[in-house]
Structures are given as structure tokens and as C-alpha cells.
Amino acid sequence: MSEKSLSRWRRGLKAIKDFYEEMYFVPYRQTIKREIRDEEDVFKLLAFSEMLGIPNPVSYYTLELMPFMLEDFHEWHRRMGMERSPLDGFRCC
Amino acid sequence: MKDPTGERIAFFGGKGGVGKTTCSAAYALSLAERGLRTLLVSTDPAHSLGDLLGVRVGDETLQVEGGLYVREIDPEGAVHRYLAEVKDNLRGLAAPRLWKEVERQMDFASASPGADEAALFDEIVSVILEAENTYDRIVFDTAPTGHTLRLLSLPELMGVWIEGMLARRRKTREWQRMLHNASGLADDDQPEDRVYTLLQRRKNRFAYARERLLNPSYTSFYFVVNPERLSILEAFKAREMLNKYGVSVGGTVVNRILPAEADGAFLAQRREQEKRYLQEVEKRFGDLPAVHIPLEPEDIQGIDGIRRIAERFQRERFGGIPH
User: Fold this and answer.
1) CA–CA separation, B309 and B255 (whole Å)
2) Angle at the Cα of B251 (from B245 to B254), degrees rounded to 5?
3) What distance in Å separates the CA atoms of residue A89 and residue B106, rounded to the nearest whole number?
4) CB 3.0 to 4.6 Å from B139: which of A28, B28, B211, B317, for a disulfide?
5) Residue span of the structural domain in which A70 resides
6) From CA B166, how far away is CA B193, in angstroms rounded?
7) Max Cα separation, chain A?
8) Structural domain includes residue A44
9) A61 - beta bridge partners?
10) Residues B57, B72: contact at Cβ < 8 Å?
11) Does a structural domain hold residue A69?
């Protein structure tokens, strides 16, 4: 077999291997992403529950987290199917 | 800890108007006169320390005389400083079009009922952090009982909440690391989690406060009562609460006792009633050291006024005052 066709074989094999790996990893990554999202949603609730009317003993201290969580919050209400922020007290857009 | 007697922080509490400020100032003075560098801090939003000593006390520490320094905590100022810092962070991170809305939200949050309290607590922790290495003793003149008790229960409650948030954040972090690996990326290029860092700092502050406030050889609480029913009952309830939280109670000051030389049928009758209340104090606080301070014919004013009480504290070596 020539050098050229050997390397083509190798590439073909690698493509098949990558394909199977992806078959395995795509749902795996999706599951992880969903877990992260759920965890982050609970975290948002803990940090800003006061805005939903749930008393939060540390709301004064979590105020300092707000600048770092704005993006996250924006992503949340978009994902929940709301074009604009649903909370009066939290207008990110 | 350089103080041989071990005790570093004293809180003076009690019902409104029993003479907390006077007694805590006298106690601080008696420590200062024994050569201990003492910081007296007023946490009562209605400050009266400056009026008692006849000086202008503020957020900045002021040397009154010798080793006696005083300071009044200003929760409102603390809220403003904190907000300014958060807004500064916001400007560095969020798009300018968002600033106004978010800042408005912050102003609302800072006006909420818990904010002053949280700020006050934070300031108390700051004072302890700063003063620990520069002063031998810190004496707190607190606001009326209920307010102070809530304040002392804060680190417990908030610590648990913050710990819950940290746990969630850690879990997310772990998932993110797994996602990272599954995407074939290197382990070490994850950005620093600022939210986690901030929470961790908060948690450490609470832990620091708890460690000190709940250490009986470090912090003691003293009650000021009058020979009068309500102040005794309130102090006793507070004592039970403090026991629950694990704050050690070091003694009671019974303030404004009718002196023996006060004469007249009216005062004789009052003294009879007072006897019963003194028995009540004995019954409820008898296991703790107590100091009796007589009612004086004139108002107590200035350093010279509180010195008479300070001498009494020193004579009885109240609250670990050294020889």
C-alpha cells in the first residue's frame, strides 16, 4: 500500500472514532449543562429571593454579588421564555 | 492575646434608659485608668455617648483621655460606603445602559429594614478586626436589648445561608470542570469565580465574629438594670436568649439605687419597694457578680461624673478589671 492511501485510511478511521465519541459525549455534555443550569437557578433564588417576596436574611450581603450575576440573570429570563426581565426590581434589559 | 485576664470584649446591654451609656463609659474609664488601652464603641443608633462625655464623637476614633478612646458607629454611613463599592464593581462589569436601573434597585435594597442591622453588624466585625491588635479592651455600648440580641444571633443564621450558597456554587464548579473535560479542554483555564470569592470572604467574616463573640473567655455581656420591675424582667429574658446563643454573661450592674441618706416618708416607702426588686435581681442574677450604683442627687455628666462609678467598678474589680 502506498504512503498516500495509508494516511487516507488513518484519517477515515479517526473520523469514525470521533463520530462515535461525539455520539457518546453530546448527551453527556447536555446532561451536565442541564445540571449546571439547575444549580445556578437555585443559586440565583438563594441570592435574590427577596425580590420574589421570600425573606432572605443575607439580602444586604448578596447585593455585592449583583454586578457579577447580571449576565446570568438575563440569560435566565430569556431561557424562561420572557423577552424582558419579569422582576420590577431587576431590570437587566 | 496579650491580656492576662483573657477578656477582651465587653457588651453592655439592657432596657432603654437604664443607664447603659453611663455604665459602659465608666467601665471603659476604669479599664483605661488601670493602664489598659480601651476603645469604647457606641452601637446605639440614637447615640448619646458624645452628650454624656461632652465631646463630639463620630465615626472616627477619638481619644478622650489617657488610654480611653471612643467611637460611634454610623450604620447609615456604612451602607453608603458599601453601596458605593458595589456600584463601582457594577460599572466595571455591566453595560452602561444597565447602570441606572440596577443602581436604583440597589438603593431600594439598601433602604430595606434589615440593611441597617446588617451594616451595623458588619461594622462591629470591622471594629473588632481593626481594634483587636491596637487595643487591650473593646467595650460596646449597645442599643436596647431586643435589637442587640437579634444582632448577636445574626452570624449563626447568615452563616448557614451563606454556607448553603457556597455549597451550590461548589457543585456547579465541579459540573463545569466535568463539562470542561468532556469538551477536551485543559483543566486549568477555568476563570476565577468572583461570586464564590466574595461569598467565601463573607463566610470568613461571620466565622471570625462567631469565634470571638461565642468565646466566654474573650467576650462577656453585662446587663444594666434599675431596681424596677420591667428592666429586671427584660434583662432576665435577654439572659436566657444569650444562653441559647451561647454568649457568656459576665455580671449585672444595678444602677440608680436609692442611697441610705435619702430621707423622707416618700423615699422610705420607695426604698421598701426597692428592697423587693433587689431581692428579685438577687434571685435571677445572684450567681453572677453584681455592682450596686447609687442614685446621685445630680445628673452624671462628663469624665468626672463617670469617674465616681468607675472607682466603684475598680474597688469591686467588676468584669475582670485588674488591680
Assistant:
1) 10
2) 125
3) 9
4) B28
5) 28-79
6) 11
7) 75
8) yes
9) none
10) yes
11) yes
Least confident range from B68-72, B132-136, B174-178, B190-194: namely B190-194
Burial pattern A53-69, b for ≥16 Cβ within 10 A else e, equals eeebbbbbbbbbbbbbb
Task: Give the residue on B whose Cα is nearest the Cα of A70.
Answer: B94
At which residue does the C-alpha cell 460611634 appear?
B72
Integer Cα distance of B290 and A44 in angstroms: 50
User: Do the Cβ atoms of B114 and A67 come within 8 Å?
Assistant: no
Q: Please answer yes or no on whether A57 and B172 come within 8 Å at the CB atom.
A: no
Please report whether residue A54 resides in a domain: yes
Domains with residue ranges and CATH for chain B: 9-78+120-151+217-320 (3.40.50.300)
Q: What span, in angstroms and rounded, lies between the C-alpha atoms of B153 and B210? A: 10
Can you give A3-21 as a three-state secondary structure string?
A: HHHHHHHHHHHHHHHHHHH
Q: How many domains does chain A have?
A: 1
Name the H helices within chain B.
20-33, 49-53, 75-93, 96-110, 113-131, 145-182, 194-213, 229-245, 265-285, 302-316
Q: pTM value? A: 0.84
- For strand B68-72 and strand B62-65, is the pairing parallel, antiparallel, or unpaired? antiparallel
Find out whether B38 and B64 touch, Cβ atoms under 8 Å.
no
B163-175 burial string, b = 16+ CB within 10 Å, else e? Answer: eebbebbebbeeb
Of the candidates A43, A61, A69, the beta carbon closest to that of B172 is on A43
The DSSP bridge partners found for residue B141 are B12, B42
Whether A22 is covered by a domain: the verdict is no
Residue A38 grid cell: 439547575
Distance CA B77, CA B58 (A): 11
Interface size A-B, in CB pairs within 8 Å, comes to 110
Model confidence pLDDT, tens digit, residues B246-272: 889 999 999 999 998 888 999 999 999
pLDDT tens for B76-105 read 888 888 989 888 888 888 778 778 877 887
Q: Tell if the CB–CB gap between A36 and B83 is shorter than 8 Å.
A: no
Round to whole Å and give the CA distance between A20 and A14.
10
What's the complex ipTM? 0.75
